[in-house]
User: Which sequence fits this backbone?
């Protein structure tokens, strides 16, 4: 689970789950209201998870599995990924990019 780097308090599964659906990479700690950012490790894990979730597309393109199996596999893997994502989220006080760089 995520632990705030400012107040050192753990976030609940629901708090992390809810914050993971925001567009802005900065999330606010529910305890001390300080801005927190996902670590590079968390971003890489999310990218890997997306590759795993969408890997059935490759098998479908190669005609190894049927379209119905591709659709079902993506739905199941997506649900599993969403439910387990709060367990590996790590946050830090420092943004990876400056906010002005994000607006370019």
Assistant:
């Amino acid at each position: 689970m995520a632990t705030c780097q400012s107040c050192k308090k753990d976030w609940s599964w629901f708090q992390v789950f809810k914050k993971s659906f925001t567009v802005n990479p900065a999330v606010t700690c529910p305890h001390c209201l300080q801005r927190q950012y996902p670590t590079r490790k968390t971003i890489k894990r999310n990218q890997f998870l997306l590759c795993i979730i969408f890997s059935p597309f490759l098998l479908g393109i190669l005609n190894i599995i049927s379209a119905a199996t591709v659709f079902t596999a993506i739905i199941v893997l997506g649900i599993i990924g969403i439910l387990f994502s709060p367990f590996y989220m790590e946050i830090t006080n420092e943004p990876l990019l400056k906010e002005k760089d994000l607006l370019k």
User: Anything to note?
Assistant: The mean pLDDT is 85. The helical segments are 13-19, 40-61, 67-88, 99-102.
